[in-house]
Amino acid sequence: xxxxxxxxxxxxxxxxxxxxxxxxxxxxxxxxxxxxxxxxxxxxxxxxxxxxxxxxxxxxxxxxxxxxxxxxxxxxxxxxxxxxxxxxxxxxxxxxxxxxxxxxxxxxxxxxxxxxxxxxxxxxxxxxxxxxxxxxxxxxxxxxxxxxxxxxxxxxxxxxxxxxxxxxxxxxxxxxxxxxxxxxxxxxxxxxxxxxxxxxxxxxxxxxxxxxxxxxxxxxxxxxxxxxxxxxxxxxxxxxxxxxxxxxxxxxxxxxxxxxxxxxx
Length: 265
Known about the structure:
Fructose-1,6-Bisphosphatase, Chain A, domain 1, D-Maltodextrin-Binding Protein, domain 2, 2 domains, seven-stranded mixed beta sheet, five-stranded mixed beta sheet, 14 strands, Inositol-1-monophosphatase, metal-binding, Inositol_monophosphatase-like, Inositol_monophosphatase_SuhB
């Protein structure tokens, strides 16, 4: 199967969904916000975008199933191929008018990521990757940065917003990165964070309590751009592991060692 060709088709479907989000952003009314949980927002834009994606992706790979954030009716998992969909990563940014939010879609075969796209809507940047074919932004090749040490690095993270049980440990880790790097940024979209690591804008990214649909495409982007992605303290599978450390590879060990000083499982 030609995963690179599938990634081209995926990019087209994702861009189309992004156009819908861009149109709705111009007139969005906060009265349409729903709460899935504490501080966990969803709107009709998330749901309608997911439906658009499911319909478009069925044409790209009819035999594939779906792992979706919003649970679109009829979008069920399959045995071999599955699309992992986050229709609007950065919903809180979107509803507050902050211009960083993405469509993120990854394709897995079994447990292996084989294609992925992160489309950053406002910047009109389409980050695309396929297994063994490299990573691209608007069809220009991208690569992780060559910064060799954490002290010279810019690091991204995401703040806890629903699960505060590990808040004390997280704040200790955050403080250590603040002291040991050029700075820490919180963009508000894990998909964008990972795409930015792939593009060399950040040297590293860490966050916990993530879902597969937050990170699927971004993990592949970083790897295909020459970087490394693992769990916090181990080299386990970050796709379903709920925690992610991504880097240019050069600072990865430093990041894991720093986290390991205070993090408890």
